[in-house]
From TrEMBL:
Compartments, as annotated in UniProt: Cell membrane
The protein, known as: GlsB/YeaQ/YmgE family stress response membrane protein
Family statement: Belongs to the UPF0410 family.
Organism: Aurantiacibacter spongiae
InterPro entries registered for this protein in UniProt: Transgly_assoc (IPR007341)
Protein keywords: Cell membrane, Membrane, Transmembrane, Transmembrane helix
Length: 87
């Protein structure tokens, strides 16, 4: 059951991050889920470095925010690679 919730939350986080970064039109639901899940891992890692809770071990608002930050960072890196600049 945890994986189903992770996929749903990852999709929502990825969708919000893609809207913030202006990439919503170019991404489908699959890529929103992928970005959300990888963003959660990246955000959890960044959060562990600065002492904010991780979504990998507990479900919390700071963990969700760090997942969103991780997804935004991931999309920013993708923008740099694809276009040579951040939007």
């Amino acid at each position: 059951m945890g994986w189903i919730i992770a996929i749903i939350v990852g999709g929502i986080i990825g969708w919000i991050a893609s809207m913030i970064m202006g990439r919503d039109a170019s991404m489908g639901i699959f890529w929103n889920i992928v970005v959300g899940l990888i963003g959660a891992l990246l955000g959890g890692w960044i959060g562990s470095l600065i002492g904010v809770g991780s979504t990998l071990t507990e479900f919390s608002i700071p963990g969700l925010l760090m997942s969103l930050v991780g997804a935004i960072v991931l999309l920013g890196i993708a923008n740099l690679i694809q276009r040579g600049r951040v939007r």
